[in-house]
Amino acid sequence: MTTPLLQIEALHVAVEGVPILRGVDLTVGEGEVHALMGPNGSGKSTLANTLLGNPTYQVTGGAVRFRGEDVTQWPTDVRAKAGMFLAFQYPEEITGVPVIQFLRQAMSARAGEDRSVLEVRMAMLEWMKKLTMDPAFGERHLNQGFSGGEKKRNEILQMALLQPEVAILDETDSGLDIDALRIVAEGVQAVRAERPQLGVLLVTHYTRILQLLQPDRVHVLVDGRLVDSGGPELADRLEEEGFDPWKS
Predict the structure, then answer these.
(1) How many helices (H) and strands (E) would you count in the chain?
(2) CA 221/CA 229 separation, integer angstroms
(3) DSSP character at residue 74
(4) In whole angstroms, what separates CA 18 from the centre of its chain?
(5) What is the per-residue pLDDT for 162?
(6) CA torsion sign, 33 to 61 to 85 to 227?
(7) pLDDT, tens digit (0-9, with 9 covering 90-100), for 204-244
(8) pTM to 2 decimal places
């Protein structure tokens, strides 16, 4: 039996003592795209942040397993080096750190050996072209002065260069116009084409990006619980009916 790439087992999470997730079970296999949908406040971003070890979120029960290994207590940097990646809903601006410097440090940490400036620059420029990003952004401070769409494309750029094994995309589509959404979705697909074993957990409110990425499975999260799972047709039903049929 194949060990799942990412396995979430009866996960309970609290923030400042307030329960948010109430026993979530979800498995993502190699090469699969899973979409996690739900109304505001259902716990979607809590799950995304918990998977990468954000200390604000306290695991009070259950486990997170990566390739069969319990990573529930691993710090964020160790998870990232192992091959887990999180694209943020609201990417941070970091003054004083150029994009290329950030990428070089991150790529070196992920690879376990130093990456040259030239190697990073060549890879960065190749992916910037695919994501229709201005190459000059590589010399600018991380996300500083970037538009919402540019920040999201920069997240996909990081995903491409860090070559994770599983990527959690936390509302990567939020705030994007149709053209930017298409570019981001095509960027995700380009990364998957080069790394077909990449597993993706996409957190989203909307079905528009799902029409571009075509998930294998769709999950509905309401009040911290997974209340339904199914194929892409479940997203179509959500588009027609909203989340009310799943609310208690």
Answers:
(1) 8, 12
(2) 9
(3) -
(4) 24
(5) 95
(6) positive
(7) 988 888 888 899 999 999 999 999 999 999 999 998 988 88
(8) 0.94
Residues 6+ apart with CB under 8 A from 16: none
CATH no. for 6-246: 3.40.50.300
CA distances from 50 to 26, 148, 238 (A): 13, 24, 25
Angle, helices 117-130 vs 178-194, to 10°: value is: 130
Q: Are 62 and 24 in contact (CB under 8 A)?
A: yes
Strand 94-98 relative to strand 141-142: parallel, antiparallel, unpaired? antiparallel
| d(C-alpha 221, C-alpha 39), whole Å | 8
Task: Name the burial class of residue 198, with classes exposed (0-12), middle (13-18) and buried (19+) by CB atoms within 10 angstroms of its CB.
Answer: buried
- Residue 210 exposed, middle or buried by CB count within 10 Å (0-12, 13-18, 19+): buried
Can you give the residue ranges of every domain in the chain?
A: 6-246
* Low-confidence stretches of the chain (pLDDT beneath 70): 1, 248
C-alpha 139: how far from chain center: 25
